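On clarity, I found the account of how folds are encoded harder to follow than it need be. Since the whole study asks how a given chain folds, the encoding of that fold should be made plain. For the editor and my fellow referees, an illustration may be useful. An entry of this sort, consisting of the sequence and the corresponding backbone structure tokens, reads as follows:

:::
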Amino acid sequence: MFSQLIGDPSDTSNEGNIYSALEFDCKGDYLASGDRGGRVVIYERNQHAPRKASVMDLDNADDPWTIHHQFQSHDQEFDYLKSLEIEEKINHIQWCKSVGDNQFLFTTNDKTVKLWKIGPRALRFDNKKRSVIRDGILSIEHEHRAEITTTASPKRVYANAHAYHINSISSNSDGETFLSADDLRINWWNKEISSSSFNIVDIKPPNMEELTEVITSAQFHPSHCNIVMYSSSRGAIKLGDTRKASLCDTSCKVFEEPEDSGAKSFFSEIVASISDASFTKDGRYIISRDYLTLKIWDINMENQPVKVININDNLKSMLSELYESDCIFDKFEASSNAAGDRVVTGCYGNQFSVWNRNGRNEKCIQLNGTGNGDMRPQQNVDFDKKVLHCAWNPADNTVALAAQAALYLYEV
């Protein structure tokens, strides 16, 4: 069921308004979004909002989600040593545990991770005096009034630790550390120390001409602070235990499907690249998304996935055109619900689908608020309309989906 539309789906003039990251907090009360302009917008759940029947019902002021705060997280920079322009685009957002009325979250662009504190702050104090007579005695009383507003302030800036583009950040369950991952390295940080980090994965070869894969995503286990998972462009997922070895690039479990030599083609490695991988909330399964499929892995079984779900199977005959237009390099995300038995992911034509762990397609919805239906291959697929980013609320069945400059919320 359609819940809310934020933004303008027809806005294609300003590339900075295109969404690039989505993340719910652990309680499901806040939704953070980042865009290519370096901005972060935090939405707060409106507990008393009525449900909406369709995307056309936009005049109701009681929206389910309202803007809590927005701020500029990153600005465009220039690396004069390497003569490189550093984009302000937000690559990833990760919530931390809240403290009192204050929320904390990590944001990152290609090179710099920042820890932000978002909370109430008194901007202006008004001290007024008034005369009061009590029991025949004249006294002066002071009235103190403060204007309270929500502000965002940077607590820490973790810079100069990555030579390549950062693609992931992940908070650890210990509440004290986090990781940041780029194309070739993963660093483990203490939140209170921004000057140094510990490198736990380094796959950079001595000769860059020998490079065969890059890191595409990384995440800590939701409950075991010693377990780290990361995925690669070769379609492999690696699970490392820092109790066994502090360096997780060689000592790890490898989840990878056997290669079918008969079906190998020029595009095989490209479409096998994992664009997103994450644990379910209970940590039992790993959800991975590549260009054509959605895979569900049991962490106790490395040799094959529990289920392989074909998402873009109808695109296999169009890979040449997709390669020429660079669409084959689009990175789709996937997100699971709190129970870990349902998964949402996006595809082309502004469609998204919901699947259960057994591979049954529960819903396929086009982002126009018209409702549900089975997924049907489109004859003329619009590759400019795509749902790359998605997030599932851990408290209920609300999913957030970003399509270009528009953010949709659905109850599934």
